Amino acid sequence: MPLNHAKYIESLPHFTPSNMVVVGKFGRSVGLKGGIRATILTDFPEILASGNVFYVEYIDKLSSILSDPNKLDSNNTSKTQNKTDLIATKHNPTQENTRAYLPLILKTFHSTKKVIEFKEIIRREEAELLCNMLFYSTLDDTRELCTLEKDEFFYFDIIGMCVVEDGINLGIVKDIQEIANTHYLVLDKHFLIPYIDRYVLSVDLENRQIITKDAHFLRMA
Questions:
Q1: Distance of alpha carbon 43 from alpha carbon 145, whole angstroms
Q2: Measured between alpha carbons, how far is 121 from 127 in angstroms, rounded to an integer?
Q3: pLDDT given at position 46
Q4: 39 vs 67, 106, 112, 117, 134, CA distance in Å?
Q5: Global pTM?
Q6: Which residues, at least 6 apart from 218, have a Cβ–Cβ distance to it below 8 Å?
Q7: 112 CB contacts (<8 Å, ≥6 apart)?
Q8: How far apart (Å, rounded) are the C-alpha atoms in residues 106 and 40?
């Protein structure tokens, strides 16, 4: 691999996996100019706007996407690097548990056909390299680009919160599951709390607490 490629890879933004939010998963390539079928996994499809930056975890086979020196020096790549420079300084590549991510600028997303195009992916062969890979947004970008309604919260803000009832700590939210159009706070495999007004009284982001009523009756023996 040429030296300039190695330097570029070294300069890629590095994040801990916990700082990333899954947006979707790539499927097969479409057409000859880098289109990719995508399964959208986010609850906020508005994030898929032209110019927004997304990330795939860097693996060696993606080096061919960087093989064109003109692409590395193009305005598109400069724009991507400008957006990620500050983030990369916050996440030192030598920091334990960080991983390198390849940033991609969204060109277009065809919502009806579920086909996505990135400015850096211009050939069918490059699109095929991304097949079955997940693509991500950062926590900070997600908060900035996604609009919440009143009393709505991001999954990643809720997970890890303490559930408190009558001053007693019932446990920590380990996951959120959707069953029959209802979201459930998962404290463990025997304790799921429906996220409805009947049981959830309030969510305190500042103190990292969810206040419930009668939820303790839902714990299975």
A1: 12
A2: 6
A3: 93
A4: 27, 15, 12, 13, 9
A5: 0.76
A6: 191, 192, 193, 194, 199
A7: none
A8: 14
What tens digit of pLDDT does each residue of 164-205 get?
Answer: 999 999 999 999 998 988 999 999 989 999 999 999 999 999
Structure tokens at 102: 């390849």
Domains of the chain: 3-67+98-143 (2.40.30.60), 153-216 (2.30.30.240)
Number of C-beta neighbours around residue 67 at 10 A: 12
Q: Would you say the C-alpha torsion 41, 45, 48, 54 has a positive or negative sign? A: negative
CA distance 171 to 218: 13
Which pLDDT belongs to residue 71?
Answer: 52
Is 45 strand, coil or helix?
A: helix
DSSP 220: -
Question: Distance between CA 179 and CA 156 in Å, rounded?
Answer: 18
Residue 5 has a pLDDT of: 61
Average pLDDT over residues 39-49: 94
Mean pLDDT estimate for the chain: 85
